[in-house]
Amino acid sequence: MSRVPGWLGRVGSGLTRMGERLDERRAAAEREPDGAPYATSSTDAEPDGSGTSEASSSAAPRDHVPAPPAYAPAVAAKAEPVAAVPWGLRVAAEAGWRLLVLAGALWVLAKAITSVQLVVMAFLAALLITALLQPTVARLRNLGLPRGLATAVTFIAGFVIMGLVGWFVVWQVMENIDTLSDKVQEGIDELQKWLLESPFHVTEDQIRDIAKNLRDAVGTNTEEITTAGLEGVTVMVEILTGILLAMFSTLFLLYDGKRIWNWVLKLVPAQARPGVAGAGPKAWRTLTAYVRGTVIVALIDAIFIGIGIYFLDVPMAVPLAVFIFLFAFIPLVGAVISGALAVVVALVTQGVFTALMALIVVLAVQQIEGHVLQPFILGRAVRVHPLAVVLSVAAGGMVGGIGGAVVAVPLVAVANTVVGYLRAYSQEQALRQSPAPHGATAIEVAPVDPPPVSSPPSNS
């Protein structure tokens, strides 16, 4: 019985040493996460434990911070700043800076166009003339003429006809300006008498002052009215330069348009080149259809309105018809201006009844044009919403004057065609690159062969 306490003491001391060794191993593992032991390990120490404790404490680094225990509460990390911004505000900001970049690019483009307005307008006019004359070149080449000869014949004939039309307008205006001035003064006298007898209580002195001012404006400024905008050496030089640029551009576009387009395609990135190459012919067909249809509609308007005002005995009926033809190239606005000009001339020269009849003729022809001729001739290829037409004409007029108003609508029509084609092309490419259906979807979309038709039983 005396040996039992000694045996228990030895067991207790052994358990104590095992606990110390486990603590040292845990401390060594915390000091070195990769598991490599320090130079002095607790397993190599003496069993008395005194040297082990000192060696391990001397090997531990002084600046080591032990890891928090497992039962310590977790501290939530701070959220990213972008997560604190509401989703709607982030979307608005993303769209806002992109709109600012787009607006800046458009502003720079408008400034660049304004600085070289003469060159841009001449080239756009050449594009419209080329779209009008190019089908003639194609027909002549189909008849067997070489490309150079077909281009030369079409170019010379086209510009000769346009020059004759311009000369005819100027000649008619110069020949009839004196007669028109006399008619205007007679119309002012008749208007004066009508106002005196009207219930508007207009005094004779007021009418006399207004009539005197109108007579002076028409009688003394006739020459200035006919030559407005054509005075000055600078203006004449700019007009001649623009005409020459348009002529040379038209000649080269007619002769070498395909090669020029291929060169432009090389400037497009390779990934976007197939889509742009397909959109180009679509855009050119749209522009050609627009110019051809506009010329036909303008010619019909000029002929029928000219015949109407001619039979109403309105002076300068032929020049007015030519003006109606030219102003028809400005959609909506041009028809209103040219029709109002014909009505005003009829009013001041032939009276209220003739002006009313001229107004009926103009409105009838324009209604037939808007509801019958344009949908039938132009078709759906160049259909543009009236609001887009008005806004584009206004923007084109602000940027480039009358020339900008003329080219604004065809550019919008071409842009509409290009955007529609590129959208359809991108959707088609996305469908081609999408993975093939599989599983139940593949079974649903897979074509099912029709069941074989059983032959009728034979009688044999």
From TrEMBL:
Residues 448-460 have a biased composition (Pro residues). It holds the Pfam family AI-2E_transport. Residues 39-54 have a biased composition (Polar residues). It is found in: Cell membrane. Its main location: membrane. Residues 1-64, 435-460 are annotated as: Disordered. Keywords: Cell membrane, Membrane, Transmembrane, Transmembrane helix, Transport. The chain crosses the membrane at residues 149-170, 233-255, 289-311, 317-337, 344-368, 388-414. InterPro entries: AI-2E-like. Residues 18-34 have a biased composition (Basic and acidic residues). It is a multi-pass membrane protein. Belongs to the autoinducer-2 exporter (AI-2E) (TC 2.A.86) family. PANTHER family: PERMEASE PERM-RELATED (PTHR21716:SF53), TRANSMEMBRANE PROTEIN (PTHR21716). This is AI-2E family transporter. It comes from Streptomyces monticola. The lineage of its organism: Bacteria, Bacillati, Actinomycetota, Actinomycetes, Kitasatosporales.
